[in-house]
Amino acid sequence: MDDRGESADVEFKRIAKAVSSNIQKICENANQMQKMISQLGSSDDSESFKSELHNVQHYTKTLSTDTKDKLKDMKELLTDVPLSEQRAQKLFLERLTNDFTTALSKFQEIQRSEAEREKEQVKMAHNRSYKLQPPPGRTNANEIPLEPSSYQRQVFLDEDGDLQNLQDREAAINRLEEDIRDVNDIFKDIATLVHAQGDVVDSIEASVESAVVQVDEGVVQLNKASQYQARARKKKLCLAVIGVVILLVLILIIYLSTKN
């Protein structure tokens, strides 16, 4: 393993650990948001409660964006990871991508649920603000005097406060809908990433196949070399036998000549 490959492998694992932590936090925040949404409109509901819900939602969206960017970094590092580790790391990246997609889908579903509940509450508040209540001692709004009384002035002041609250809540809903659109964009990026992972996988498999071919070619060359060596040894052995036979014939001829 060269220095570049080792460095890429270490960085890949570091980012993968951060992604795993992010996915776990997204799931935890989604569960927390689900519980908080069920309390909207209850006695626990308040402006500070809604603000906390909005903060958790926005933080989770930011965390989702960071996770998507980290998955992209992992994909880019994958080609530099040593060949022996690439297949395992590729499967790990696929699993993290699937886990993130599942967590993101749940988070987006809860986002939409929150937006619907918030809109319902704002609509109800608008309807209440249009109903002018008569002052104490009168039975209907037609009996309200034309000159503003202290009661009416107080009602107008209360309505001004309600109007400001409604405006704040509508602004919060607009931010929530913008975050929902951002999550839609994250889904699009993930779809592109998954497609790109397919190209990376093809490249990895091609590299593996190339390595296998090279190994096979090496084996073939070794087999050929072994065959050449065996043939050479056989040829030498034949020549040696022929040489011995010729030598024995010469000795026999010399022996017979001297005997005669």
Automatic annotation (TrEMBL):
Where, by residue number, does the polypeptide cross the bilayer? 237-257
Single GO molecular function:
SNARE binding
Record-level GO cellular component terms: SNARE complex; synaptic vesicle
What Gene3D superfamilies does UniProt report for this protein, alphabetically? 1.20.5.110, 1.20.58.70
Localisation per UniProt entry: Membrane
One Gene Ontology BP term is: vesicle fusion
Please state the protein's primary subcellular location.
Answer: membrane
Give the UniProt keywords, A-Z. Answer: Membrane, Neurotransmitter transport, Transmembrane, Transmembrane helix, Transport
**Membrane-protein topology:** Single-pass type IV membrane protein
Annotated ranges, domain T-SNARE coiled-coil homology: 163-225
Q: Which family does it belong to?
A: Belongs to the syntaxin family.
Name this protein carries in UniProt:
t-SNARE coiled-coil homology domain-containing protein
Organism listed in the record: Notodromas monacha
